[in-house]
Inverse folding.
């Protein structure tokens, strides 16, 4: 980890987004001991709920068996398989067999989505999640993930587009909560023009975050450029100053 980047970001974050929640990060490694190993759960367990501990400052290490959701295993690169009947699970269901989530109108639509759904294979045994201020020199974060309120999100969205010509410097793909913070931003690493990803629209994951929070995730190289751009961007203008004061006030009020 570039410790200079770590400190520069913390200083600028406090200056322009005073009191807002720090991002968490993740990276893959075969090295043990980089975080508390999450034991295999005995039942279904939503990854977003477990990551609440990381947001509070606990560094966690997951391997394939630590992940208590089939969808999360796929979105984190540990299992390419999709549960049988998934096209019905995501749509109308099958009476007496599968309860449908009704996120898509028909099983046929889901099948077409699955044909286009990307997949990557986890490059190492473990995936490590750490909050920004818990990173150490040996850590190599690959994605930064923010859980934010709308005012903070507006700043991140605009900063991500600061160097962009195209209007889609940030995307919001249909995905499970873990897909929007892991798979999609991780796969942006390989694009010539890396984009940020807004997420946490997944209705099933919503109970695990506050009602006024969405996510913004971005590959670390794009994140570095965003940090470098802060002092010459809109963040130094009176327009942002008005928003920044509201961000600070909301934190002081316990928001």
């Amino acid at each position: 980890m570039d410790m200079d980047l770590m400190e520069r970001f913390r200083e600028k974050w406090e200056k322009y987004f005073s009191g807002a929640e720090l991002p968490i990060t993740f990276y893959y490694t075969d090295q043990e001991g980089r975080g508390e190993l999450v034991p295999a759960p005995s039942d279904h367990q939503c990854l977003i709920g477990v990551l609440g501990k990381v947001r509070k400052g606990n560094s966690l290490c997951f391997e394939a068996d630590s992940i208590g959701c089939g969808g999360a295993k796929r979105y984190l690169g540990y299992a390419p398989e999709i549960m049988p009947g998934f096209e019905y699970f995501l749509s109308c269901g099958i009476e007496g067999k599968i309860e449908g989530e009704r996120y898509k109108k028909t099983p046929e639509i889901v099948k077409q989505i699955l044909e286009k759904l990307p997949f990557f294979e986890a490059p190492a045994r473990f995936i490590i999640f750490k909050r920004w201020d818990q990173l150490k020199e040996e850590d190599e974060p690959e994605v930064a993930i923010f859980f934010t309120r709308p005012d903070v999100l507006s700043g991140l969205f605009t900063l991500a587009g600061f160097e962009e010509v195209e209007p889609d410097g940030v995307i919001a793909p249909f995905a499970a909560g873990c897909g929007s913070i892991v798979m999609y931003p991780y796969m942006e690493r390989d694009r010539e023009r890396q984009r940020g990803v807004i997420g946490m629209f997944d209705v099933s994951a919503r109970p695990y975050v506050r009602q006024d929070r969405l996510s913004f995730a971005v590959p670390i190289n794009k994140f570095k450029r965003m940090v470098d751009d802060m002092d010459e961007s809109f963040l130094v203008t009176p327009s942002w100053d008005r928003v920044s004061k509201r961000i600070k006030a909301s934190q002081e009020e316990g928001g």
About this structure: The CA atoms of residues 53 and 117 lie 29 Å apart.
